[in-house]
């Protein structure tokens, strides 16, 4: 599962995304959500990671790898120590919900490896509230998903 966040300063909003894929890279489910803009990009990324964790649980996954391009967020998720960062409380709450899950791991990836989630976060600008696609992503992102798999 990949996550990402995007900032839309001019409209004081942020986009959150989560893309769940199977081992072949095919989309199982994806989410794009528009939220009020918090005061830092790290908080946007933390909110995106937390939303991705909640989304995976909402569709019944109890085993997944969470990939994101925010090194600070991934380090916080991996750490067993309490985080005193501005976004630590967001991730502590999300991680607490995974304690009964089977196998959850967290991985930092480069921006290039996160292109589907990044573009889905940018797509949130056109979403009212949130949108979910089951076994799919928005049609205009199909080429990016194919290139990412390919």
From TrEMBL:
It comes from Lithocarpus litseifolius. Pfam families: RVT_3. PANTHER family: BNAC02G40300D PROTEIN (PTHR47074), POLYNUCLEOTIDYL TRANSFERASE, RIBONUCLEASE H-LIKE SUPERFAMILY PROTEIN (PTHR47074:SF48). Residues 2-124 form the RNase H type-1 domain. It comes from the Eukaryota. The lineage of its organism: Eukaryota, Viridiplantae, Streptophyta, Embryophyta, Tracheophyta. This is RNase H type-1 domain-containing protein. CDD domains: RNase_H_like. InterPro entries: RNase_H-like_dom_plant (IPR044730), RNase_H-like_EbsB-rel (IPR052929), RNaseH-like_sf (IPR012337), RNaseH_domain (IPR002156), RNaseH_sf (IPR036397). One of its GO terms (molecular function) is nucleic acid binding. Transmembrane segments: none annotated.
């Amino acid at each position: 599962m990949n996550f990402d966040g995007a900032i839309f300063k001019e409209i004081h909003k942020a986009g959150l995304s989560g893309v769940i894929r199977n081992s072949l890279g095919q989309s199982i489910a994806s989410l794009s959500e528009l939220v009020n803009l918090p005061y830092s990009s790290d908080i946007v990324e933390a909110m995106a990671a937390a939303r991705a964790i909640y989304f995976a649980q909402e569709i019944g996954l109890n085993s997944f790898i969470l990939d994101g391009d925010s090194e600070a967020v991934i380090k916080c998720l991996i750490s067993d120590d309490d985080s005193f960062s501005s976004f630590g409380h967001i991730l502590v709450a999300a991680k607490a919900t995974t304690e009964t899950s089977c196998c959850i791991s967290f991985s930092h990836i480069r921006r290039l490896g996160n292109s589907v989630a990044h573009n889905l976060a940018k797509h949130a600008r056109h979403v009212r509230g949130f949108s979910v696609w089951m076994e799919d992503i928005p049609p205009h992102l199909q080429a990016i998903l194919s290139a990412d798999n390919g």
